[in-house]
DNA sequence: TGTACATCAGTGAACGCGCGTTCACTGATGTAC
DNA sequence: TGTACATCAGTGAACGCGCGTTCACTGATGTAC
């Protein structure tokens, strides 16, 4: 064996990571296998020794991007006072920076609709990642009951991802900024109602 | 002239209408020109005597679908007492029926992300349709100031479309239903805060 | 009223291209001696 | 320590296919006579 056993796994990870950028940027159908491999510094021929199909990579890349978003939320809130944590996440999500950097942003606005048209297996995997995301966000609302926190977190994620899609789609700077602002207000209002446990 | 002048325009309209169903169902990249023409009962050869390119049809079909949604909201609320109108629209949007009938539903959840990756011209056209949609929904909140109604309507549309995308993407019936429910609550809470003018 | 004709909406074969996928091959590498 | 070797990660040509688009043609139709 001329290569350490981890070498191929590292290459595979690199492909998934770079693909997650390319796919978020251009959509699930917007990048060819050859281009995805080029992003990882490889040629397309070796692709099928790493993945069963292009679709399999798309699902993996999506899952990785979801994990990264969750990790980012955890990092972002670690050193924050409890009562500011939720708003910090919301403000970072609904920022011009996130709107303008699709390739490194949350996978939901970029790929959600593609997953919705995908097969059941992919949608189940998304569902699990989405539940994780909801749980992490709900834990940033400790002043609410678990059930209410979960409901608010679910609505907040829907509002945040919808706002980002619309803000990116609107070919009109002023409208786009208005959408981000309205999204922030909307999430705050959702969280504010019946704050008491 | 062997055909009345409106004949070709009617055919064109039929193509746009049928395309709007096919594209909402399968995404902007999910249906071929040949299939889109077949939906209208035609063959693909005549396509370019009606449209400059496939993209041009996609944009027209998207715009038509947006108009239909706005018309639907107006019909739905015409005979309703003023104070119930907003909720009627929200409940119809965030219904299992809308989630499960992508082809005849709102174009934003189905095609928003595709438009976000489209050219500036298409995005400007979307922006105009989106402003219309926001205005119509804002007018269903007459108890708020125009500025606040517009902000709430914007946030509500983001929440509604985000919830539908997530509810469709979640390969898990219970989660999907939870998302619709959380979306309804979220929109209500957004509208409820500071209701007074 | 009947017929020949010009028009043009719609047809379907053909094009070039890029895609996902396959496969015979290469060459860098750790190991055996 | 140096060399021959087996392995297999990665290469790039080739495949079949479906796509968007083009174009020469057809045939149904309203009009002129």
Tell me what the structure shows.
2 copies of one chain form a homodimer. In chain A, helix 3 packs across helix 4 (82-93), helix 7 packs across helix 8 and helix 8 packs antiparallel against helix 9. In chain A, 73% of the residues lie in helices and 0% in strands. Chain A contains 9 helices and no strands. The mean pLDDT of chain A is 95. Chain A has helices at 6-26, 33-39, 54-78, 82-93, 96-100, 107-116, 120-138, 146-169, 173-192. With 197 residues, the first copy, chain A, is mainly α. The structure holds a DNA duplex (33 and 33 nucleotides).
Structural class computed from helices and strand pairing of chain A: mainly alpha
Strand count of chain A? 0
> Radius of gyration of chain A in whole Å, from Cα?
18 Å
Q: Please trace the helix and strand order of chain A, writing H or E for each element.
A: HHHHHHHHH
Number of helical regions of chain A: 9
Which two chains share the most extensive interface?
Answer: A-B, 56 and 56 residues
The percent of residues in helical segments of chain A reads over 70%
The quaternary organization reads as: homodimer
Which residue ranges of chain A are poorly predicted, with pLDDT under 50 across at least 5 consecutive positions? none
Mean pLDDT of chain A: 95
CA(first)-CA(last) distance of chain A: 61 Å
Question: TL;DR of this structure?
Answer:
2 copies of one chain form a homodimer. Chain A is mainly alpha-helical and 197 residues long. Helix content of chain A is 73%, strand content 0%.
Topology record:
The structure is a homodimer of 197-residue chains.
Chain A: H1 6-26, H2 33-39, H3 54-78, H4 82-93, H5 96-100, H6 107-116, H7 120-138, H8 146-169, H9 173-192
Helix pairs in contact in A: 1-3, 3-4, 3-7, 7-8, 8-9
Chain A binds a DNA duplex (33 and 33 nucleotides) through residues 1-4, 7-8, 11, 32-34, 42-50, 53-54.
